[in-house]
Amino acid sequence: MRQLEFLDRYSPFALAVLRIVTALIFMEHGTQKLFGFPAPPEQGMPPLLSIFGIGAVMEFVGGLLILVGLFTRPVAFLLAGEMAVAYWMVHAPQNFFPALNGGDAAILYCFVFLLFVFTGPGAWSVDGALRERPATPQ
């Protein structure tokens, strides 16, 4: 195992790549429901003040914040909760098995966002840049 310890130094960068890719794919769900891009949802565009419309705003704005790594931990906590609610309200009632109810992505998003709650954003984030910035003299 000792020969693989050199990989540890790359962990913050691997975490950042996971954060960025997750955010980009997650944001696509929000843009689909808000703007009909890349294609409108099969059920049609949700009203903005419906549970699906609020979810779409969370997916787009929250995904954007996760993408740049700003307020990563609290935003990831909210998005993990959104995905848990989405799974139990929308997917689980259809069928017990995630592969059959279409909820496997919601489960994965929930746990990836939960990971970010505990790990933070990794490298290449606004949170990291703000943390490293020296305090201004008073």
Explain what you see.
The chain has 138 residues and is mainly alpha-helical. It has one domain. Helix content is 65%, strand content 0%. It has helices at residues 11-35, 51-68, 72-91, 98-101, 104-119, 126-132. Helix 1 runs antiparallel to helix 2.
List keywords for this structure.
single chain; 138 residues; mainly alpha; 6 helices; 65% helix; globular
Summarize the model shown.
The chain has 138 residues and is mainly alpha-helical. Helix content is 65%, strand content 0%. Helix 1 (11-35) packs across helix 5 (104-119) and helix 2 (51-68) runs antiparallel to helix 3 (72-91).
Spell out the helices and strands N to C: HHHHHH
Whole-number total of structural domains: 1
Number of strands: 0
**What gap, in angstroms, lies between the N and C termini?**
49 Å
* Mean pLDDT metric: 94
Query: Helical percent range?
Result: 55-70%
Rg over C-alpha atoms, rounded to the nearest angstrom: 17 Å
Low-confidence segments: none
Q: Please state the structural category.
A: mainly alpha
| Share of β-strand residues | under 5%
Main β-sheet: number of strands, strand sense, barrel status?
Answer: none
SSE topology sketch:
Blueprint: H1 11-35, H2 51-68, H3 72-91, H4 98-101, H5 104-119, H6 126-132
Helix pairs in contact: 1-2, 1-5, 2-3, 3-5
